[in-house]
Amino acid sequence: MNPTIFITGASSGLGKATAKLFASKGWTVIATMRHPEKETELTEFPNIHLLKLDISDPKQISGIASEAEKISSVDVVLNNAAYGLMGPFEGIEDEQLASQINTNFLGTLLVTKAFLPYLRARKNGTIITITSSTANIPYPFVSVYAATKSALEKWTEGMSYELKEWGIRSKTVVPAYMQTHFGSNAQMVSHPDYQPVFNQYITAMRTDSSAKRDAPETIADIVYEAATDNKKQLHYIAGELATSEYEWLKKEGIETVINKMNERFFG
User: Fold this and answer.
1) pLDDT tens digit string along 94-128?
2) What percent of the chain is modeled with pLDDT above 70?
C-alpha cells in the first residue's frame, strides 16, 4: 500500500511543490487549502485528494483527521500553512496579533493533536512542521512571525520525548526566504512613529532583493528526505540561505549576529 501524506496550505508555494513531489513518488497526497474549489493544477494528479481546511478555524480542524483517514491512513502530517505579518509590533492590532498566533502556532498544534490518536494506534508516523530561519536569526519587523516559528521549534523538541514511545517522529524543516509569493502576500502593518526606520529597513531589503532565493522545489526535496530517511533527527536546515545563516549563528553567536544585522539594515 502506498504511503500517505497530509499537507496543510497546499494551494501555493512550498505546499503545492511538496504535494507534486510526493505524488510523483507514488504517495497518496491529501492536500488541504481554504478554497479547494479554485484549485486546478493539483487536480491533474489522480493520487492527490483535496480537502477544505482553514487552520485558523478550530471547528474545521476538529473533523479534518477523520475526514482524511477515510481517504487513506496518514503516515506523514506536514504542517505547512502559515502567513506573514510584517511591520512594527506596536502597529499590530489585537485582532491581527491573535490571528497570527492562531494560524501559525495554535492551528498547527490543533491539526497535529487531531491526528495523534490515529498515529498512536498504528504506532508509527512522522509529523513535519515547516518553521523558518527567522526562528534562529530574527529579521526586523517580523517579531511575531519569528516568535511563532521559534515556538514551533521548541514544541517539536518537547513532543519528541512524549511521542517516542509510540514510534512517532517529530521534525521541523527550516527554510529561509524562498522564491514564492509569501513575502508579497504578507499582511503589512504600520505605525507613523516607526515609519522612518521601517522605510530604512525596506530600502536595505530591496538592495538585497537580487540575492539568490531557494526554490520551493528545493525545499520540498528536504521535506521528502525528512519524511523518508527514518532518522531521529529533529531539525533539517533547508536551502543555501538558511544553511549559511545557521552556520553564521553557530560561529559567532546570537549577540554578534544581532549587532551585525543592526549595522546591515540601520547603519
Assistant:
1) 999 999 999 999 999 999 999 999 999 999 999 99
2) 96
Three-state secondary structure of the chain: CCCEEEECCCCCHHHHHHHHHHHHCCCEEEEEECCHHHCCCHHHCCCEEEEECCCCCHHHHHHHHHHHHHHCCCCEEEECCCCCEECCHHHCCHHHHHHHHHHHHHHHHHHHHHHHHHHHHHCCEEEEEECCHHHCCCCCCCHHHHHHHHHHHHHHHHHHHHHHHHCEEEEEEEECCECCCCCCCCEECCCHHHHHHHHHHHHHHHHHHHCCCECHHHHHHHHHHHHHCCCCCCEEEECHHHHHHHHHHHHHHHHHHHHHHHHHHHC
Q: Taking a C-beta distance cutoff of 8 angstroms, is the pair 173, 15 a contact?
A: no
Give CA–CA dist 146/149, Å, rounded: 5
**What is the grid cell recorded at 237?**
536546515
Q: What's the one-letter identity of residue 140?
A: P
pTM: 0.94
